[in-house]
Design a protein that fits this description.
Radius of gyration: 23 Å
Distance between the termini: 43 Å
Structural class: alpha/beta
Shape: globular
Oligomer: single chain
Helix content: 25-40%
Bound molecules: adenosine-5'-diphosphate
Amino acid sequence: MLKVKRKAITKNYLLFFGVSNILPIFSHKSFNPKFMEIIHVSAECYPVAKAGGLGDVVGAIPKYLNEAGHIAKVVMPMYRTKFLQNNEWEVVHKGSTNMGDYFFDYTVIKEATNKLGFDLYLIDIYGLLDRDKIYGYDDDSNRFTAFQIAFVDWLSVWLHRPDVVHVHDHHTGLIPFMMKYCYRYKHLATVPTVFTIHNAQYQGWMGWNNSVWLPPYDTWKTGLLDWQDTINPLASAVKCADRVTTVSESYMEELRYMSNGLEALFEYERGKCTGILNGIDAKVWDPAVDTYIKDDYSVKTVDEGKLKNKTRLCEQFGLDVEKPLFVFIGRLVGEKAADILPAVIGDSFYYIGRRMNFLILGSGDPAVEADFNGLMPISQGDYSCYIGYNEALSHLMYAGADFLLMPSRVEPCGLNQMYSMRYGTVPMVRNTGGLRDTVIDIAAPGGYGIVFENASVGDVSHAVWRAVNMYQNKEQFSASRKQMMNLDFSWEKSIQQYITLYQSLK
Ligand code: ADP
Protein backbone atom coordinates (compact mmCIF):
# COMPACT_ATOMS: atom_id res chain seq x y z
CA MET A 1 0.00 0.00 0.00
CA LEU A 2 1.32 3.44 -0.91
CA LYS A 3 1.81 5.52 2.25
CA VAL A 4 0.45 9.02 1.58
CA LYS A 5 -0.07 11.72 4.18
CA ARG A 6 -3.08 13.81 3.24
CA LYS A 7 -2.48 16.79 5.51
CA ALA A 8 -0.30 18.63 3.04
CA ILE A 9 -3.13 19.50 0.65
CA THR A 10 -4.07 23.02 1.63
CA LYS A 11 -3.83 26.11 -0.51
CA ASN A 12 -2.08 26.28 -3.79
CA TYR A 13 1.10 27.96 -2.69
CA LEU A 14 1.50 25.72 0.31
CA LEU A 15 1.01 22.83 -2.03
CA PHE A 16 3.96 23.88 -4.08
CA PHE A 17 6.33 24.86 -1.34
CA GLY A 18 5.30 22.68 1.58
CA VAL A 19 6.53 24.20 4.84
CA SER A 20 9.83 22.35 4.67
CA ASN A 21 10.47 24.01 1.34
CA ILE A 22 9.60 27.53 2.37
CA LEU A 23 12.15 27.54 5.15
CA PRO A 24 15.24 26.77 3.09
CA ILE A 25 14.16 29.13 0.32
CA PHE A 26 13.83 32.06 2.66
CA SER A 27 16.78 31.17 4.78
CA HIS A 28 19.18 30.67 1.84
CA LYS A 29 17.90 32.93 -0.86
CA SER A 30 16.73 35.92 1.09
CA PHE A 31 19.89 36.16 3.18
CA ASN A 32 22.44 35.06 0.66
CA PRO A 33 21.58 35.74 -2.97
CA LYS A 34 24.52 33.59 -4.09
CA PHE A 35 22.55 30.45 -3.25
CA MET A 36 20.28 29.14 -5.95
CA GLU A 37 17.26 26.87 -6.29
CA ILE A 38 17.72 24.31 -9.05
CA ILE A 39 14.99 21.94 -10.18
CA HIS A 40 16.23 18.77 -11.87
CA VAL A 41 13.72 16.99 -14.09
CA SER A 42 14.55 13.46 -15.17
CA ALA A 43 13.10 10.06 -16.08
CA GLU A 44 15.50 8.34 -13.67
CA CYS A 45 16.98 9.03 -10.24
CA TYR A 46 18.82 6.51 -8.04
CA PRO A 47 17.61 4.89 -5.77
CA VAL A 48 14.04 5.58 -6.89
CA ALA A 49 14.32 4.27 -10.44
CA LYS A 50 17.50 3.55 -12.41
CA ALA A 51 18.19 1.93 -15.77
CA GLY A 52 21.75 3.23 -16.21
CA GLY A 53 24.12 6.12 -15.60
CA LEU A 54 21.38 8.78 -15.90
CA GLY A 55 19.85 7.49 -12.66
CA ASP A 56 23.17 7.51 -10.81
CA VAL A 57 24.00 11.05 -11.92
CA VAL A 58 20.60 12.58 -11.14
CA GLY A 59 20.67 10.81 -7.76
CA ALA A 60 24.03 12.40 -6.95
CA ILE A 61 24.12 15.96 -8.36
CA PRO A 62 21.33 17.37 -6.10
CA LYS A 63 22.94 15.89 -3.01
CA TYR A 64 26.24 17.58 -3.75
CA LEU A 65 24.56 20.87 -4.77
CA ASN A 66 22.73 20.91 -1.44
CA GLU A 67 25.98 20.21 0.39
CA ALA A 68 27.41 23.26 -1.38
CA GLY A 69 24.58 25.30 0.17
CA HIS A 70 22.12 25.44 -2.75
CA ILE A 71 18.60 24.05 -2.90
CA ALA A 72 18.37 21.29 -5.46
CA LYS A 73 15.22 19.25 -6.02
CA VAL A 74 14.33 16.38 -8.30
CA VAL A 75 11.05 15.90 -10.16
CA MET A 76 10.42 12.59 -11.91
CA PRO A 77 7.56 10.31 -13.01
CA MET A 78 5.87 8.13 -10.41
CA TYR A 79 6.53 4.55 -11.49
CA ARG A 80 5.47 1.57 -9.42
CA THR A 81 8.83 1.02 -7.73
CA LYS A 82 9.87 -0.51 -4.43
CA PHE A 83 11.03 2.92 -3.34
CA LEU A 84 7.50 4.22 -3.82
CA GLN A 85 6.02 1.45 -1.71
CA ASN A 86 8.63 1.63 1.05
CA ASN A 87 8.53 5.36 1.79
CA GLU A 88 6.13 7.97 3.07
CA TRP A 89 4.69 10.61 0.77
CA GLU A 90 2.71 13.79 1.03
CA VAL A 91 0.50 15.11 -1.72
CA VAL A 92 1.69 18.60 -2.63
CA HIS A 93 -0.35 19.39 -5.71
CA LYS A 94 -3.23 18.16 -7.78
CA GLY A 95 -3.77 19.57 -11.22
CA SER A 96 -5.57 19.00 -14.50
CA THR A 97 -4.25 19.70 -17.94
CA ASN A 98 -4.36 18.30 -21.44
CA MET A 99 -2.22 16.71 -24.09
CA GLY A 100 -4.13 17.69 -27.24
CA ASP A 101 -7.63 16.36 -26.81
CA TYR A 102 -6.58 14.00 -24.02
CA PHE A 103 -7.50 15.71 -20.74
CA PHE A 104 -5.86 14.25 -17.66
CA ASP A 105 -5.43 14.81 -13.92
CA TYR A 106 -2.05 14.62 -12.30
CA THR A 107 -0.87 14.49 -8.71
CA VAL A 108 2.49 15.57 -7.35
CA ILE A 109 3.72 13.74 -4.27
CA LYS A 110 6.80 14.54 -2.21
CA GLU A 111 8.93 12.14 -0.20
CA ALA A 112 8.08 13.09 3.39
CA THR A 113 11.36 12.59 5.28
CA ASN A 114 14.07 14.03 3.00
CA LYS A 115 15.61 10.58 2.96
CA LEU A 116 17.81 11.24 -0.07
CA GLY A 117 19.27 14.54 1.10
CA PHE A 118 17.15 16.53 -1.36
CA ASP A 119 13.46 17.12 -2.02
CA LEU A 120 12.07 14.46 -4.29
CA TYR A 121 8.79 14.95 -6.16
CA LEU A 122 7.01 12.30 -8.20
CA ILE A 123 4.33 13.13 -10.74
CA ASP A 124 1.56 10.57 -10.98
CA ILE A 125 -0.52 10.37 -14.12
CA TYR A 126 -2.98 7.54 -13.79
CA GLY A 127 -2.64 4.92 -16.52
CA LEU A 128 0.44 6.49 -18.12
CA LEU A 129 3.29 6.73 -15.64
CA ASP A 130 2.32 4.25 -12.91
CA ARG A 131 3.95 1.24 -14.56
CA ASP A 132 6.51 -1.31 -13.35
CA LYS A 133 9.24 -0.40 -15.83
CA ILE A 134 10.74 3.00 -16.65
CA TYR A 135 10.89 2.55 -20.43
CA GLY A 136 10.07 0.04 -23.08
CA TYR A 137 6.36 0.64 -23.67
CA ASP A 138 4.81 1.38 -27.06
CA ASP A 139 3.35 4.61 -25.71
CA ASP A 140 6.58 5.97 -24.18
CA SER A 141 6.25 9.13 -26.31
CA ASN A 142 2.79 9.83 -24.84
CA ARG A 143 3.98 9.00 -21.35
CA PHE A 144 6.94 11.34 -21.32
CA THR A 145 5.17 14.13 -23.21
CA ALA A 146 2.35 14.02 -20.63
CA PHE A 147 4.93 14.01 -17.82
CA GLN A 148 6.64 17.09 -19.24
CA ILE A 149 3.36 18.95 -19.74
CA ALA A 150 2.32 18.14 -16.16
CA PHE A 151 5.69 19.38 -14.84
CA VAL A 152 5.50 22.68 -16.71
CA ASP A 153 1.86 23.07 -15.72
CA TRP A 154 2.78 22.59 -12.05
CA LEU A 155 5.75 24.94 -12.30
CA SER A 156 3.57 27.58 -13.92
CA VAL A 157 1.48 27.97 -10.75
CA TRP A 158 4.41 28.22 -8.34
CA LEU A 159 4.40 31.50 -6.50
CA HIS A 160 8.14 31.93 -6.89
CA ARG A 161 10.52 31.16 -9.71
CA PRO A 162 13.40 28.73 -9.38
CA ASP A 163 16.81 30.02 -10.49
CA VAL A 164 17.31 27.20 -12.98
CA VAL A 165 15.35 24.31 -14.44
CA HIS A 166 17.83 21.58 -15.34
CA VAL A 167 16.49 18.86 -17.62
CA HIS A 168 18.17 15.56 -18.50
CA ASP A 169 18.09 13.60 -21.79
CA HIS A 170 15.35 13.49 -24.41
CA HIS A 171 12.56 12.39 -22.04
CA THR A 172 12.56 15.95 -20.67
CA GLY A 173 13.83 17.66 -23.83
CA LEU A 174 10.56 19.42 -24.73
CA ILE A 175 10.49 21.37 -21.47
CA PRO A 176 12.74 24.27 -22.60
CA PHE A 177 10.54 24.73 -25.69
CA MET A 178 7.32 24.63 -23.68
CA MET A 179 8.64 27.08 -21.09
CA LYS A 180 9.77 29.54 -23.74
CA TYR A 181 7.22 29.32 -26.52
CA CYS A 182 3.89 27.87 -25.34
CA TYR A 183 1.41 30.70 -24.81
CA ARG A 184 -0.06 29.40 -21.59
CA TYR A 185 3.36 29.14 -19.91
CA LYS A 186 4.70 32.45 -21.21
CA HIS A 187 5.54 33.72 -17.74
CA LEU A 188 8.15 30.93 -17.45
CA ALA A 189 10.03 32.14 -20.53
CA THR A 190 12.64 33.96 -18.47
CA VAL A 191 13.44 31.05 -16.14
CA PRO A 192 16.86 29.80 -17.32
CA THR A 193 17.09 26.22 -18.53
CA VAL A 194 20.04 23.83 -18.72
CA PHE A 195 19.95 20.61 -20.72
CA THR A 196 22.35 17.75 -20.01
CA ILE A 197 22.91 15.05 -22.61
CA HIS A 198 23.74 11.73 -20.99
CA ASN A 199 23.28 9.87 -24.25
CA ALA A 200 22.64 11.41 -27.67
CA GLN A 201 21.94 8.07 -29.37
CA TYR A 202 18.34 8.19 -28.16
CA GLN A 203 16.58 11.36 -29.23
CA GLY A 204 12.87 10.68 -28.59
CA TRP A 205 11.85 11.12 -32.25
CA MET A 206 8.10 11.62 -32.87
CA GLY A 207 6.06 12.13 -36.01
CA TRP A 208 4.70 15.62 -36.70
CA ASN A 209 1.20 14.23 -36.21
CA ASN A 210 2.06 14.33 -32.49
CA SER A 211 2.52 18.10 -32.56
CA VAL A 212 -1.14 18.41 -31.51
CA TRP A 213 -0.12 16.99 -28.13
CA LEU A 214 1.85 20.09 -27.25
CA PRO A 215 0.25 23.09 -25.55
CA PRO A 216 -0.50 25.81 -28.16
CA TYR A 217 2.58 27.64 -29.42
CA ASP A 218 3.65 30.14 -32.10
CA THR A 219 3.47 28.09 -35.27
CA TRP A 220 6.42 29.91 -36.73
CA LYS A 221 8.51 28.35 -33.92
CA THR A 222 8.01 24.83 -35.28
CA GLY A 223 11.61 24.81 -36.48
CA LEU A 224 12.68 24.70 -32.85
CA LEU A 225 11.04 21.30 -32.47
CA ASP A 226 12.09 19.87 -35.80
CA TRP A 227 15.06 17.89 -37.02
CA GLN A 228 14.88 16.21 -40.40
CA ASP A 229 11.09 16.29 -40.58
CA THR A 230 10.37 14.76 -37.20
CA ILE A 231 9.82 16.26 -33.77
CA ASN A 232 13.16 15.63 -32.11
CA PRO A 233 13.03 16.39 -28.36
CA LEU A 234 16.80 16.09 -27.94
CA ALA A 235 17.49 18.49 -30.83
CA SER A 236 14.77 20.83 -29.56
CA ALA A 237 16.41 21.02 -26.14
CA VAL A 238 19.79 21.75 -27.73
CA LYS A 239 18.16 24.61 -29.64
CA CYS A 240 16.01 26.01 -26.83
CA ALA A 241 17.93 25.52 -23.56
CA ASP A 242 20.10 28.39 -22.41
CA ARG A 243 23.04 26.07 -21.84
CA VAL A 244 23.77 22.52 -22.97
CA THR A 245 26.16 20.20 -21.21
CA THR A 246 27.27 16.68 -21.78
CA VAL A 247 28.98 14.32 -19.43
CA SER A 248 32.60 14.50 -20.61
CA GLU A 249 34.68 16.86 -22.68
CA SER A 250 35.70 14.25 -25.23
CA TYR A 251 32.07 13.29 -25.84
CA MET A 252 31.21 16.96 -26.41
CA GLU A 253 33.87 17.02 -29.14
CA GLU A 254 32.68 13.71 -30.61
CA LEU A 255 29.10 14.92 -30.94
CA ARG A 256 30.23 17.37 -33.61
CA TYR A 257 31.17 14.53 -35.93
CA MET A 258 29.22 11.53 -34.57
CA SER A 259 25.84 12.14 -32.94
CA ASN A 260 23.27 10.04 -34.72
CA GLY A 261 22.37 12.74 -37.25
CA LEU A 262 22.74 15.88 -35.11
CA GLU A 263 26.36 16.70 -36.04
CA ALA A 264 25.53 19.98 -37.81
CA LEU A 265 23.39 21.10 -34.89
CA PHE A 266 26.18 20.54 -32.37
CA GLU A 267 28.62 22.37 -34.62
CA TYR A 268 26.20 25.30 -34.89
CA GLU A 269 25.36 25.44 -31.18
CA ARG A 270 28.87 24.81 -29.89
CA GLY A 271 28.99 28.25 -28.24
CA LYS A 272 26.55 27.21 -25.53
CA CYS A 273 27.77 23.64 -25.10
CA THR A 274 30.18 22.47 -22.37
CA GLY A 275 31.50 19.08 -21.28
CA ILE A 276 31.43 18.46 -17.53
CA LEU A 277 32.76 15.07 -16.46
CA ASN A 278 30.46 13.07 -14.20
CA GLY A 279 31.73 12.23 -10.78
CA ILE A 280 30.85 9.17 -8.76
CA ASP A 281 28.80 9.20 -5.61
CA ALA A 282 31.54 8.25 -3.19
CA LYS A 283 29.00 7.62 -0.46
CA VAL A 284 27.28 4.89 -2.46
CA TRP A 285 30.36 3.54 -4.24
CA ASP A 286 32.92 2.97 -1.51
CA PRO A 287 34.30 -0.54 -0.88
CA ALA A 288 35.05 0.44 2.73
CA VAL A 289 31.37 0.94 3.60
CA ASP A 290 29.45 -0.68 0.74
CA THR A 291 26.35 -2.28 2.21
CA TYR A 292 25.90 -4.56 -0.81
CA ILE A 293 29.16 -6.42 -0.12
CA LYS A 294 29.95 -8.50 2.96
CA ASP A 295 33.74 -8.10 2.93
CA ASP A 296 34.51 -4.39 2.94
CA TYR A 297 38.06 -3.23 2.25
CA SER A 298 40.18 -0.10 1.89
CA VAL A 299 43.32 0.79 -0.09
CA LYS A 300 45.45 -0.80 2.62
CA THR A 301 43.55 -4.08 2.59
CA VAL A 302 42.69 -4.18 -1.10
CA ASP A 303 44.45 -7.44 -1.99
CA GLU A 304 42.89 -9.47 0.85
CA GLY A 305 39.53 -7.70 0.51
CA LYS A 306 39.25 -8.31 -3.20
CA LEU A 307 40.26 -11.93 -2.82
CA LYS A 308 37.44 -12.53 -0.31
CA ASN A 309 34.90 -10.92 -2.64
CA LYS A 310 36.29 -12.79 -5.64
CA THR A 311 36.03 -16.09 -3.75
CA ARG A 312 32.41 -15.35 -2.88
CA LEU A 313 31.65 -14.45 -6.49
CA CYS A 314 33.48 -17.48 -7.93
CA GLU A 315 31.66 -19.83 -5.54
CA GLN A 316 28.34 -18.31 -6.58
CA PHE A 317 29.04 -18.78 -10.31
CA GLY A 318 31.22 -21.91 -10.20
CA LEU A 319 34.39 -20.16 -11.40
CA ASP A 320 38.05 -20.86 -10.65
CA VAL A 321 39.30 -18.31 -8.13
CA GLU A 322 42.95 -18.87 -9.12
CA LYS A 323 42.46 -17.37 -12.59
CA PRO A 324 42.10 -13.65 -13.33
CA LEU A 325 38.43 -12.67 -13.43
CA PHE A 326 37.17 -10.46 -16.29
CA VAL A 327 33.69 -8.99 -15.96
CA PHE A 328 31.30 -6.96 -18.06
CA ILE A 329 28.42 -5.03 -16.46
CA GLY A 330 25.97 -3.09 -18.58
CA ARG A 331 23.18 -2.80 -21.06
CA LEU A 332 23.52 -5.36 -23.85
CA VAL A 333 23.17 -2.86 -26.68
CA GLY A 334 25.21 -1.88 -29.73
CA GLU A 335 26.71 1.19 -28.03
CA LYS A 336 28.34 -0.97 -25.38
CA ALA A 337 29.70 -3.40 -28.03
CA ALA A 338 28.55 -6.28 -25.84
CA ASP A 339 27.74 -8.15 -29.08
CA ILE A 340 31.44 -8.76 -29.76
CA LEU A 341 32.16 -10.22 -26.34
CA PRO A 342 30.97 -13.79 -27.03
CA ALA A 343 33.54 -13.94 -29.87
CA VAL A 344 36.19 -12.31 -27.64
CA ILE A 345 35.59 -14.98 -25.00
CA GLY A 346 35.81 -17.76 -27.59
CA ASP A 347 38.97 -16.32 -29.16
CA SER A 348 40.63 -15.74 -25.80
CA PHE A 349 40.05 -19.35 -24.72
CA TYR A 350 41.33 -20.57 -28.09
CA TYR A 351 44.40 -18.37 -28.56
CA ILE A 352 45.45 -17.49 -25.00
CA GLY A 353 44.24 -20.71 -23.39
CA ARG A 354 41.78 -21.24 -20.57
CA ARG A 355 43.81 -19.05 -18.26
CA MET A 356 41.03 -16.65 -17.25
CA ASN A 357 37.38 -16.45 -16.15
CA PHE A 358 34.65 -14.32 -17.69
CA LEU A 359 31.46 -13.23 -15.91
CA ILE A 360 28.78 -11.16 -17.65
CA LEU A 361 25.96 -9.16 -16.04
CA GLY A 362 23.50 -7.40 -18.31
CA SER A 363 20.30 -7.37 -20.25
CA GLY A 364 19.11 -5.84 -23.49
CA ASP A 365 19.21 -7.12 -27.06
CA PRO A 366 17.62 -10.61 -27.01
CA ALA A 367 20.09 -11.87 -29.66
CA VAL A 368 23.07 -10.87 -27.50
CA GLU A 369 21.41 -12.33 -24.41
CA ALA A 370 20.98 -15.58 -26.35
CA ASP A 371 24.65 -15.51 -27.40
CA PHE A 372 25.79 -15.22 -23.79
CA ASN A 373 23.43 -17.97 -22.65
CA GLY A 374 24.62 -20.06 -25.59
CA LEU A 375 28.20 -20.02 -24.24
CA MET A 376 27.21 -21.69 -20.96
CA PRO A 377 27.66 -25.26 -22.26
CA ILE A 378 31.31 -24.56 -23.20
CA SER A 379 32.14 -23.31 -19.71
CA GLN A 380 34.75 -25.40 -17.94
CA GLY A 381 34.39 -23.48 -14.69
CA ASP A 382 35.67 -20.35 -16.43
CA TYR A 383 32.59 -18.62 -17.84
CA SER A 384 29.19 -17.62 -16.53
CA CYS A 385 26.54 -14.98 -17.08
CA TYR A 386 23.59 -13.42 -15.32
CA ILE A 387 21.05 -12.02 -17.75
CA GLY A 388 19.02 -9.35 -15.99
CA TYR A 389 19.42 -6.31 -13.80
CA ASN A 390 20.92 -6.85 -10.34
CA GLU A 391 22.27 -3.90 -8.37
CA ALA A 392 23.67 -6.02 -5.51
CA LEU A 393 25.49 -8.36 -7.88
CA SER A 394 27.00 -5.41 -9.75
CA HIS A 395 28.59 -4.16 -6.50
CA LEU A 396 29.98 -7.62 -5.72
CA MET A 397 31.39 -7.80 -9.25
CA TYR A 398 33.14 -4.41 -8.99
CA ALA A 399 34.59 -5.64 -5.69
CA GLY A 400 35.51 -9.19 -6.70
CA ALA A 401 36.69 -8.78 -10.30
CA ASP A 402 40.27 -8.26 -11.44
CA PHE A 403 39.39 -6.59 -14.76
CA LEU A 404 36.33 -4.77 -16.12
CA LEU A 405 35.71 -4.87 -19.87
CA MET A 406 34.26 -1.77 -21.60
CA PRO A 407 34.70 -2.04 -25.37
CA SER A 408 32.00 0.64 -25.93
CA ARG A 409 31.44 1.98 -29.44
CA VAL A 410 30.00 5.12 -27.83
CA GLU A 411 30.54 6.14 -24.20
CA PRO A 412 29.40 9.65 -23.22
CA CYS A 413 31.08 9.39 -19.82
CA GLY A 414 30.81 5.88 -18.46
CA LEU A 415 30.53 5.36 -14.75
CA ASN A 416 31.47 1.68 -14.62
CA GLN A 417 35.16 2.35 -15.24
CA MET A 418 35.19 4.90 -12.39
CA TYR A 419 33.39 2.52 -10.03
CA SER A 420 35.80 -0.25 -10.97
CA MET A 421 38.82 1.93 -10.21
CA ARG A 422 37.34 2.92 -6.85
CA TYR A 423 37.09 -0.82 -6.11
CA GLY A 424 40.65 -1.53 -7.32
CA THR A 425 39.49 -3.33 -10.50
CA VAL A 426 41.53 -2.59 -13.62
CA PRO A 427 39.38 -1.01 -16.38
CA MET A 428 39.93 -2.24 -19.96
CA VAL A 429 38.43 0.43 -22.16
CA ARG A 430 38.15 1.58 -25.74
CA ASN A 431 39.76 4.95 -26.43
CA THR A 432 36.56 6.97 -26.74
CA GLY A 433 34.38 9.59 -24.99
CA GLY A 434 34.56 9.66 -21.21
CA LEU A 435 36.69 6.50 -21.19
CA ARG A 436 39.45 8.48 -22.91
CA ASP A 437 39.12 11.21 -20.24
CA THR A 438 39.40 8.87 -17.26
CA VAL A 439 41.69 5.91 -18.05
CA ILE A 440 45.44 6.03 -18.79
CA ASP A 441 47.04 2.95 -20.32
CA ILE A 442 49.50 1.13 -18.07
CA ALA A 443 52.22 1.55 -20.71
CA ALA A 444 51.95 5.37 -20.58
CA PRO A 445 53.56 7.45 -17.81
CA GLY A 446 51.42 7.30 -14.65
CA GLY A 447 49.14 4.70 -16.29
CA TYR A 448 47.04 2.04 -14.55
CA GLY A 449 44.41 0.69 -17.00
CA ILE A 450 44.33 -1.02 -20.40
CA VAL A 451 43.28 1.07 -23.38
CA PHE A 452 42.62 -0.18 -26.95
CA GLU A 453 41.54 1.58 -30.13
CA ASN A 454 38.76 -0.43 -31.75
CA ALA A 455 35.60 -2.22 -30.71
CA SER A 456 36.80 -5.30 -32.58
CA VAL A 457 37.30 -8.90 -31.49
CA GLY A 458 41.02 -8.65 -32.32
CA ASP A 459 41.67 -5.52 -30.27
CA VAL A 460 39.72 -6.71 -27.24
CA SER A 461 41.30 -10.20 -27.29
CA HIS A 462 44.73 -8.58 -27.50
CA ALA A 463 43.79 -6.45 -24.47
CA VAL A 464 42.78 -9.63 -22.62
CA TRP A 465 46.20 -11.10 -23.41
CA ARG A 466 47.89 -7.95 -22.02
CA ALA A 467 45.72 -8.19 -18.90
CA VAL A 468 46.58 -11.86 -18.28
CA ASN A 469 50.27 -10.90 -18.40
CA MET A 470 49.70 -7.91 -16.14
CA TYR A 471 47.99 -10.19 -13.62
CA GLN A 472 51.11 -12.41 -13.40
CA ASN A 473 53.22 -9.63 -11.92
CA LYS A 474 51.56 -9.62 -8.50
CA GLU A 475 53.57 -6.71 -7.12
CA GLN A 476 52.88 -4.39 -10.02
CA PHE A 477 49.24 -5.48 -10.11
CA SER A 478 48.77 -4.67 -6.46
CA ALA A 479 50.46 -1.27 -6.93
CA SER A 480 48.10 -0.45 -9.82
CA ARG A 481 45.09 -1.32 -7.69
CA LYS A 482 46.23 1.03 -4.96
CA GLN A 483 47.06 3.78 -7.43
CA MET A 484 43.56 3.60 -8.95
CA MET A 485 41.82 3.57 -5.59
CA ASN A 486 43.61 6.78 -4.70
CA LEU A 487 42.40 8.61 -7.82
CA ASP A 488 39.81 11.28 -7.20
CA PHE A 489 36.64 10.91 -9.28
CA SER A 490 34.45 12.60 -6.70
CA TRP A 491 31.66 14.99 -7.59
CA GLU A 492 33.15 18.00 -5.80
CA LYS A 493 35.07 19.37 -8.80
CA SER A 494 32.28 18.79 -11.32
CA ILE A 495 29.66 20.27 -9.01
CA GLN A 496 31.66 23.47 -8.88
CA GLN A 497 31.54 23.59 -12.70
CA TYR A 498 27.74 23.19 -12.65
CA ILE A 499 27.44 25.94 -10.03
CA THR A 500 29.56 28.30 -12.14
CA LEU A 501 27.35 27.48 -15.13
CA TYR A 502 24.14 28.16 -13.19
CA GLN A 503 25.57 31.42 -11.87
CA SER A 504 26.39 32.57 -15.39
CA LEU A 505 22.66 32.39 -16.18
CA LYS A 506 21.51 34.76 -13.43
P1 ADP B 1 24.76 3.75 -19.35
O1 ADP B 1 24.12 4.88 -18.62
O2 ADP B 1 25.09 4.08 -20.77
O3 ADP B 1 24.02 2.47 -19.23
P2 ADP B 1 26.97 4.07 -17.48
O4 ADP B 1 28.32 3.45 -17.43
O5 ADP B 1 26.92 5.56 -17.49
O6 ADP B 1 26.18 3.45 -18.69
O7 ADP B 1 26.14 3.57 -16.17
C1 ADP B 1 25.76 2.29 -16.02
C2 ADP B 1 25.20 2.10 -14.62
O8 ADP B 1 24.22 1.08 -14.68
C3 ADP B 1 26.24 1.62 -13.62
O9 ADP B 1 25.83 2.00 -12.32
C4 ADP B 1 26.14 0.09 -13.77
O10 ADP B 1 26.65 -0.60 -12.65
C5 ADP B 1 24.64 -0.06 -13.90
N1 ADP B 1 24.18 -1.25 -14.61
C6 ADP B 1 24.06 -1.42 -15.96
N2 ADP B 1 23.54 -2.64 -16.23
C7 ADP B 1 23.33 -3.24 -15.04
C8 ADP B 1 22.80 -4.53 -14.66
N3 ADP B 1 22.40 -5.43 -15.57
N4 ADP B 1 22.70 -4.81 -13.34
C9 ADP B 1 23.10 -3.90 -12.41
N5 ADP B 1 23.62 -2.68 -12.71
C10 ADP B 1 23.72 -2.35 -14.00
